[in-house]
Amino acid sequence: KAGVTQTPRYLIKTRGQQVTLSCSPISGHRSVSWYQQTPGQGLQFLFEYFSETQRNKGNFPGRFSGRQFSNSRSEMNVSTLELGDSALYLCASTPGASAHQETQYFGPGTRLLVL
Amino acid sequence: QKEVEQNSGPLSVPEGAIASLNCTYSDRGSQSFFWYRQYSGKSPELIMSIYSNGDKEDGRFTAQLNKASQYVSLLIRDSQPSDSATYLCAVSSSSASKIIFGSGTRLSIRP
């Protein structure tokens, strides 16, 4: 089976712009979670989607949003980018509905640099 | 107090020795515990999962869970240079359907 894929892998944006990141889970996996990883804060949970519904959300401002499509692919959007949004954004998929109890399979990540 | 705490390291261990990584958590209701390994520039990958008190062994890796003391540890026997990485402890939240990651312990195996 192909692993989790994320596009793009690298992105450079300027402050104030918006960005959309894409994640395709492992075939058959229905849950997708998004994380932000920075050297200072570590791996921070953004949100989780299952069957096109957001099931949980982390402590991030409303500028961060996401969605999931019927084929389980997911996108996350960050509007009005700030310098502090520079990070590695990781997507992880799990087979079932209980993502917090199952192994998470991570994609390679999208490295976002905001100038 | 952080929800999941790990010593950031670096932890330096000679090749062939046992590396011991520790993690404490604050949510007494947590039920699922994971250790992920992350090489520099790569994404995390699962090493072990553990759900009940006691030890769980998988090859050179042993996870230990003590819910009463709220700690989980990972032992790596016969450490190899390829074990040099950051090890992330992850704990499920009992109040929300999410996993909380510790900040990771950087392990360095010296030849």
How would you describe the overall organization of this protein?
Helix content of chain A is 0%, strand content 52%. Chain A is mainly β and 115 residues long. In chain A, the strands form two sheets. In chain A, strands 2, 4, 5, 6, 9, 10 and 11 form a seven-stranded mixed sheet that branches. Chain A is globular. The termini of chain A are far apart. In chain A, 40% of the residues are buried. The mean pLDDT of chain A is 93. Helices cover 0% and strands 54% of the residues of chain B. In chain B, the strands form two sheets. In chain B, strands 2, 4, 5, 9, 10 and 11 form a six-stranded mixed sheet that branches. Chain B is globular, with a radius of gyration of 13 Å. The mean pLDDT of chain B is 93. Classes of the chains: A mainly beta (115), B mainly beta (111). Chains A and B meet through strand 5 and strand 10 of A and strand 5, strand 9 and strand 10 of B.
Mind telling me the C-alpha Rg of chain A? Answer: 13 Å
Strand portion of chain B = over 45%
Number of helices of chain A: 0
Query: In terms of per-residue confidence, which ranges of chain B show pLDDT below 50 for 5 or more consecutive residues?
Result: none
- Which band does the percent of strand residues of chain A land in? over 45%
Q: What's the assembly state of these chains? A: heterodimer
Largest sheet of chain A: 7 strands, mixed
Kindly report the average pLDDT value of chain B: 93
If you average the pLDDT of chain A, what whole number results? 93
* Number of helices in the DSSP assignment of chain B: 0
> Main sheet of chain B, how many strands, which sense, barrel?
6 strands, mixed
Query: What's the N-to-C terminus distance of chain B?
Result: 36 Å
Structural class by secondary-structure content of chain A: mainly beta
The SSE order of chain B reads EEEEEEEEEEE
Shape of chain B: globular
What is the N-to-C order of secondary-structure elements of chain A (H for helix, E for strand)?
EEEEEEEEEEE
Chain pair forming the biggest interface = A-B, 24 and 22 residues
